[in-house]
Amino acid sequence: TLYKLYAYVVGFRSAVGSSGGEAVRSGEQALGGQSPGAEEQHAPQQHPPAEWINSVTTQPACWPHIGGSNIMKWDDMDTNAWFSMRTLSLSAPVSVGVDLCEELNRVASLVREEGNRRQPSRPRNRTLPYARAEGPFVTRRERLYPTTEQKEALRKVAGVYRWTFNRAIAYLRQHPHSNLTQVRQATVKSTSIDEQDKEWVFKIPYAIRAQAAEEAHTANRNSQRAQAEGRIDHFTLHFRKRRSGFGGFKLEKRQWKDGTLHIPELLDGPIRVRTPIRSIEHDGATVRQQNGKWEVLWSVTAGEEDLPAPAGLGPRVCAIDPGVRTFATLFDPLVGIAIKVGEGANARIFRLGLHLDNLLSRMAASNAKQRYRMRKAANRLRKRIKDLTTDLHKKLASFLRANYDTVFIPTFNAHEMSRRGKRRIGRRTIRQMMSLAHGRFRSWLGWKMKTVEIKEDWTSKTCSTCGRVNYRLGGSDTHRCPSCGTHSDRDVNAAKNIFIHSLFDLRRSLTTTGNGLNTAVVHL
């Protein structure tokens, strides 16, 4: 019995690795608490698709070799960021006489052909008379610097706006098919409000309160339309609650004059802004408070630089392997390099998360004044964590748009991998993975450029040189092939496999519509 317990503990440590485990892909890692050997004994061993494995064996000779990437020196890139970016020069392809540029141009043509084959979805027509015109829009944001008196006035406006919005939600719950005029008459008109008890309501301009009623009506109308189209099963209109340091309201275009906000009934003068905003287009603007800081957001017509760059325009291609210990690993076959972005970034974010946990645990044993201050400190910590991840996402997305024409990226369904009862990684790794917000990064990258998304099953365990599967990879950061003996960096090996997998899926999707394997999706 003691021997079995010892074997169990040793097997578990070898499975999760020295760092406590790594975020792994669905179907790649041994079950949590078991060694790979135990999994092979108690569960039928899974195998990757044979057709894709056969394609791997014919591809590696055409692309840069990654052998020895686990021990080679990585060079730091000059980046003005809190996270690291390191690059590694890979060995030349084994095949002699292969024109990488010509081969990658063929890959780009496959991407364009696949994109042309998939028709983009037809945009929804706007039929309401007060709806804005169709067209690509982008949102701009500018910081506001109000005085102490102006801050108090903005908080009053936000409070009345929230009260009117909740009043409209309560009315729409009882009369869900009311039009906008009926909602305004029931919630904004002076005849519907007791003037003796609600004198503070009429100090706020009618136009701002009408915007609150319109926002509630729009939310109800959009939800009803989504339910009718079958996109959602049901919906519930929720009230907005009061939160210290948060809130906001919407404005009409006419309330923005001379590059700043004007509310003569409340503000003693214009609010200072760092960069004057010449005009507000389309649907007006939104003034909101985030962690005590005020800012204004407005929509403008998107320019050419704001639209996503199309995929497949040239030979500059890269494949991305997302992870936890390293946020993203890039494989660039044209230049012959691998790039690691955000290596160790999870540790810094996780440390801030521990500070947040400690703060929340001490909050329960504090008095009201201390809890108020701790709550504000917790909000600042949450914003700090989100700002770090957002900075990582935006700078990496800008780097990819500036240097590549086509990006192959896996889906990396973090929520599916973290589901209780099905996950194969520990709580610590799950928290680090969720804090990095890979889904938000894919969304942001989609706004910068068109991407090709694939599934990444077996890309870490499969050797990118010979196609042999290493079932005992576990959480090791080095991939050791049991067949050809190639030793390589785990993430670089996975990034190259994602590139090879993308080529296989593109060729297959253009020749057949079978349902046995993964299919690349060009997002247009």
List the helices and strands and how they pair.
Elements: H1 2-16, H2 36-42, H3 50-58, E1 75-76, E2 85-89, H4 100-117, E3 137-145, H5 148-174, H6 180-187, H7 206-228, E4 246-251, E5 256-257, E6 260-261, E7 272-273, E8 285-290, E9 293-301, E10 317-322, E11 326-332, E12 337-343, H8 345-363, H9 368-403, E13 406-410, H10 414-417, H11 427-436, H12 438-448, E14 452-454, E15 478-480, E16 487-489, H13 490-511, E17 521-522
Descriptive overview:
This protein is an alpha+beta fold and 524 residues long. It folds into 2 domains: 305 residues, no CATH class; 164 residues, no CATH class. Helix content is 40%, strand content 15%. It contains 13 helices and 17 strands. The strands form 4 sheets. The protein has an 8-stranded mixed sheet with strand order 1-2-12-11-10-13-14-17, with helices on both faces. It has a 5-stranded antiparallel sheet with strand order 4-8-9-3-7. Strands 5-6 form a two-stranded antiparallel ribbon. Strand 11 and strand 12 form a beta hairpin. Helix 4 crosses helix 13. The longest helix is centred in the C-terminal third of the chain and has 36 residues. The N terminus is likely disordered.
β-sheet strand percentage: 15-25%
Q: Please compute the radius of gyration using only Cα atoms.
A: 28 Å
Average pLDDT reading: 81
The span between the termini is 59 Å
Strand order, biggest sheet?
Answer: 1-2-12-11-10-13-14-17
Q: Give helix % range.
A: 25-40%
Shape: elongated
**Number of beta strands:** 17
| Total domains | 2
Helix/strand structural class: alpha+beta
Tally of helical runs: 13
Give unreliable regions as ranges: 3-43, 125-130, 513-519
How many strands, which pairing sense, and closed or not: the largest β-sheet? 8 strands, mixed
Keywords: DNA-binding, Metal-binding, Zinc
Organism: Tilletia indica
Pfam families: Cas12f1-like_TNB, HTH_OrfB_IS605
GO molecular function: DNA binding; metal ion binding
